[in-house]
Fold each of these.
Amino acid sequence: MMNLFLRPGRRVAAAAFACALPLLAQSTPQPQPEPTPMPPAIAAPVDKPYAGTVKLFVDLTDNARRIANVHEEVPVVPGAKELVLLYPEWIPGNHSPTGPISKLGGIITTVDGQRVQWVRDRVNVFAFHVPLAAGAKSVGVDFQYLSPIKRTEGRIEISNAIADLAWNEVLMYPAGYFSRDIPFDATLKLPEGWKYATALETGSENGATVTFKTTPLNELVDSPLYAGVNYKRIDLSPTPTDIVHLDVFADTAEELNVTPEELEVHKKLAAEADKLYGSHHYKHYDFLLLLSDVVGGIGLEHHQSSEDGHDGKYFTDWASGVGSRDLLGHEYTHSWDGKFRRPADLWTPNFNVPMRDDLLWVYEGMTQYWGNVLTARAGMRSVEDTRDVFARVAAGFEVSPGRDWRPMVDTTNQPIVSERRPVTWVSWQLPENYYTEGELIWLDADTKIRELTDGRKSLDDFAKLFFGPYNGSYITLTYHFEDVVKALNTVAPYDWDTFLKTRVYDLHPAVPEDGFTRGGYKLVYTDTPAKWVMQAEAANGSADFSTSLGLSLGASRGDKAKPGTVNNVWWNGPAFKAGVVPDMELISVNGSAYSPDVLRKAIVAAEKDVKPIEFIFQRGDEVKTITIDYHGGLRYPSLQRVDGTPDRLDEILAPSKSPFPPM
Ligand SMILES: [Zn+2]
């Protein structure tokens, strides 16, 4: 795309060229190009029932080639001259236009059984026009969803043992209607012997073919299905009326083995959420837990289920997973924060209307907070480890100078800006800071409420008030910024409008530490990493020196990088200033072959030395010596108790004293 700032210069150059050709200059002036009018826009959705029920058939039996074969029968409005079919573009939970339209092939349309060629809209590539003759009754659509085979093509969704079926990837729907007004009858054919789990309710089963009860489109897309060979269903229901299941799919049968202790903390997670919110917004809830080293894991929220992906070691090497242990607590929280209560401008009537993400610091930021708090309350992660997680978040801000230029609210645009692809300079671009900074703002608010009310009220009361209406309903209830302020004021009167606006909209170069300070702790740095950080390093070969040298090495989760591969370099940190770049490989440190321990020892030794640390890096064919004049020690972040101050943080992380809500 052209940079607009270049235009004046280009015009000067063209004028100079014309002067050199006086004969041409005398001819009729050439007209400037004018824009061609846009074609008519695709019909905006309206809230009225669609002409009939769409029948959808998905065949997953070609799982070896990762191909889903789709057939649809779409009734048409009597007298209509065309049917416009939309492929979902704006995907809930992604907060961005990431519908995988590039993965479709073999699109064929028929009208009442006769082949009729579709035409793709010339502006909106997610829209397909199907011309209709008088008296047309039904449009048939066939296509294949060609799921990635190699990781470079995208996330692997189907393997020989597991499939993650997102319905939005395998359907088209008529334009012009709210998605809640279009009923779907979905039928799925699975490979022989596979089992499945979904929040959808089964209508009938015939061998490997399953038909689900008629479901509105919005609910169908919100109810993905996991299927596979190795499957275990575990009841986590905290009360007889709050029905929660853990549906585990794994590459191997061994990876399904859960110990009684692991099972217990998952049950406690459901119980703690029940006590926190005092309500729930589902008929029944299913954690679709995927344990795989082949199929890529995601964390994606839905109203009555969540997609929770982890590598195969989730149960079998429980100790190494502390860092990502809040995944289920986070996605479960979204049933209340995000799916039931949703920012008004983020809710859209169908899947091809743009989303606006400016309140993601509530949708994701508060969910990040409650996800971590619930994980601690359930005993899935110890209080001490949770404090370390908070310390790492805050310390990350200290070495992220992007806070000098980017207000947190602007980071809420990032899902649309980058469509959730990784960025190169995380600490400078601050891609999605609304998660972690939002989390610290809500810790700040929680401790503030506790201070204002002498401990009688807390953010738990806000959660019950804000997420509590219409208990049992899973119809989305939208809100605006003012509604958040109003609910906070109901819990504890204060100038919450200014409190939130200054933290969200203003630049904040300083680390947001008020939540810790009021919580009875301060951020300190030590030479000793948290035990779980070391376990994670040992398990995946990664090493984090972000708060010391300003770099991290080895694999990020799911990758198979060499241990010395530079994963990330912190902007303006010591490594950055010395010229280290993220695609280098660290070969040696002070003459010894690199390992995380060798580097740690060199950093500790340099604290008492005036000599710089000497590194050899390789980048492609180039081998290069780089010295870093760093003597600040390892600087692992941690929270230290401040004696004589109220210990509010540990109160927040302790199991809830609330009773189970009546239902
Ligand atoms: Zn989330």
Amino acid sequence: MSKTTFDYDVAIIGYGPTGVMTANYLGSFGIKTLVLERDKDVYFRARAVTVDGTTLRCMQALGLDEEAKKDMDVTTALRWKTYKGFEFLRWSPADDSPWGHIDSNMIFQPNLERTLRAGVDRYTKNVDIKFGYAFSSLTQDPESVTVKAVSDTGADVEYRVKYVVGADGGSSAVRGGLGIANEGKTKPRTWIVIDSKVKKTWPERELLTFWSDPVRPVVDIPLPGEHHRWEIPLGDDEKKEDFDSPEAVWRLLGAMDVTPDQVDIEHFAFYNHHIRYAQRWRDGRVVLIGDAAHLMPPWAGQGMQSGIRDAANVAWKLRYILQNGVSDRLLDSYQPERQPHVVKVTASSVALGNLIETKAGLPTVMRNFMLPIISKSAGFKKGLKVKPDYDGGFFGVAPTKKVAVGKMVPQPNVTDSVGKESKLDSFLGSDFCVVGINIDPRAVMTDAQQAAWALYAPRYLTILAKGSTATSADQIVDSDGVLVPWFTQYGVKTAVLRPDKYVAATNNTSLDMARVWK
Ligand SMILES: Cc1cc2nc3c(=O)[nH]c(=O)nc-3n(C[C@H](O)[C@H](O)[C@H](O)COP(=O)(O)OP(=O)(O)OC[C@H]3O[C@@H](n4cnc5c(N)ncnc54)[C@H](O)[C@@H]3O)c2cc1C
């Protein structure tokens, strides 16, 4: 007889960076969660090498940013050099990030994943993690999903859950089981990625360097904890087999004057880069996140970070569906929000990759004269970053450049009524917040609007201009002088902020909630 009770509210398949972030969010919301992970330990290969300020902001929401930063190095500088030694670009990542965290940090992915996993250990009451369990299939009906898996001892297990998050990576069995195509292309060029442990350092090792060369370009990456990485494309006539030995790897390193005195090779692997998107990211009660939903080349350092943003996006939606009785149509807003953003960061990654791979190197005029000038401009630094803004989804009106709706609110320091100064998000927490700029937001909302948003149980906060004094717990002062000007430039007096810090609605567009999100 089929079950009528639920074993868990949510099953997360895969415990890589996107799965573990989802487990942290759901754990912190008190949602009964199962994690099925095929492997026994963190994947040993360091793949992602960098995180930005918005990703750290997601970790901050989980109380894990400071712990994670202990294993990170702030990126010193990025430079572009020819093999002959001519440096035609040097760029220090901006430290004036609006997100409350430095915008470019080098990471060692296995260590970051360990920190995130330790974070989930805080939620043993409501999160069960089963290592060595490979997801095998699922079936769903209007009320539930039945998930089947096989343990590493060969035991078949089955769980009935309300929702499934497929975070099982690029070869996703969840995606495959649902018959969802992974559309796009795989680039023909093969890259060798060499990871090492440094024994004896060398001058300027700490600089992330693109070596431009028509024959053998190299991406040269310093990683925290005395790790160092080289990513090198194979030529048109070269095969993986030509390089698949320590001797061949040493020949590649030797050409860059790197010797066995300086590093131990930890491992090397071959990759072809993909540009692929799952045809749909939601199928009934199942959502795909991270590499299961999209794959991009690594050059913009955004693959894992995009997965973390997916986790942040899906987790609060599941929370309001499961705990506040919001319709699960809310999950329909996930792909329209996340996919256009992923497409933009993929395009920037592809453009950077084309520059690195270009066989002739950069045109001399561009390289020697234009890039050094352009790279010093503020616009260049900003242009390298894709803004986190959303183009559509869970919003009162369609986001445009001219409205605050769809934009991520900056994170300056603010001061509360007892004079304590902290980053904005520590006051906003993980709830919906309705904020009024120098005014009680309820004074700007109709009763009907307040009744509609009550479904999301928002907190009401007043943000006072710099120089004011907060006199009650629902007031904060914009002590850095950032928030009031930010809202004012869009003509906003009152705004609804989502848990992921996006502006959902404003008084000068509409504070009504669209019927579909109720
Ligand atoms: C060379 C390289 C450099 C990169 N550099 C960057 C960078 O600088 N910045 C960045 O943001 N990203 C970077 N990336 C991309 C980044 O590593 C990935 O996007 C990220 O690891 C994806 O995370 P995920 O959790 O979605 O998937 P994964 O990390 O693949 O994790 C999936 C998990 O699911 C488990 N699993 C799989 N199948 C099953 C199953 N059937 N049952 C149970 N469990 C299962 C796996 O064991 C694994 O633990 C890089 C990638 C490469 C290859």
